[in-house]
Design goal:
disordered C terminus, mainly alpha, Tetracycline Repressor, domain 2, 2 domains, disordered N terminus, single chain, Homeodomain-like_sf, elongated, 10 helices, TetR/AcrR family transcriptional regulator, DNA-binding, Arc Repressor Mutant, subunit A, HTH-type_TetR-like_transc_reg
Amino acid sequence: MSRVRTRPTRDDTCEKLFEAAAHVFEEQGIGSVSIEAIAAAAGFSRGAFYSNFKSKDELIIAMLEDHVEQSIRRCLDLLAKHKDPADYIAAFRNMDRTRQDPLGRSPLLHMEMILFVARAEKRRPELAKRLRARRQMITEIVETTAKNTGKTFQDPAWVGAILLALEDGFRLHRLIDPETTPADSFLRAADDLRAAIGVAFDAP
């Protein structure tokens, strides 16, 4: 007879800490939030926090890593189901955002956390790893969609870097001026670019 698990697994604990940290960070600001406040918001003791993370900085980096991993998984899952670029963009546009991680649901907090980590030069390599992972993901999407449509790119990695910069730029513009930056601005731009440079896909 199997035993019923009564204690949370590390993944369960991390998920609750991520959600709690996101809530108190948004409410009080990242710099002013203590480890005790995060643990209490998650319903855990200080000891439970330290059994998973050595510091608040480590928790933040783990949250950023989890966000990137989930984003990559969602995008590649969609890509496996939608071979045509237009279908992929449409599916991405209609994706259920409520099921995303805390940083996926709060672009402003995501950006604040990136800046918080970037302020310390010694922590920037951690951000660089996530940036490279995102670039690689978009490069894979570019390569796969090109292959599925029988097209070619001179430099898929560069196209991926352009698209990622475009996405980050529109995210920032959306936070600053939502009235003139619709939520689907990046997807509209990507679709327009796909159509505008369609002839270039066939370049030798």
